[in-house]
Specification:
Strands 1, 2, 3, 4 and 5 form a 5-stranded mixed sheet that branches. The protein contains 4 helices and 5 strands. By secondary structure, it is α+β, with helices and mostly antiparallel strands.
């Protein structure tokens, strides 16, 4: 049971963004995000996007840093991964 965080490498809106996921449940992820003050609009089917400047605080709150590859692997192993195809409803 862990909330995982990857490096913020995705540019959008003039800043870099990373992903925050749970390898257990969406309930765990939503609770962590709520406690961290991450708005619900940051949720994208299976993860929250977070801005680069929030990384250290999220780790201090308990998010475990992992590579992007490990984040996807653990999300998939937990059965929580939503593919881009699924997000588009195909």
């Amino acid at each position: 049971m862990a909330v995982l965080i990857d490096d913020p490498i995705w540019p959008a809106h003039g800043r870099l963004w990373g992903h925050l996921v749970s390898d257990t449940s969406l309930d765990e992820l939503h609770a962590f995000a709520r406690d961290a003050g991450i708005p619900e609009r940051g949720f994208d089917h299976d993860h929250y996007d977070y801005p680069e400047e929030r990384r250290d605080g999220l780790i201090a709150q308990g998010a475990k840093p992992v590579t992007g590859k490990e984040l996807v692997a653990r999300l998939t192993a937990a059965g929580l991964r939503v593919s881009q195809r699924q997000k588009r409803g195909l």
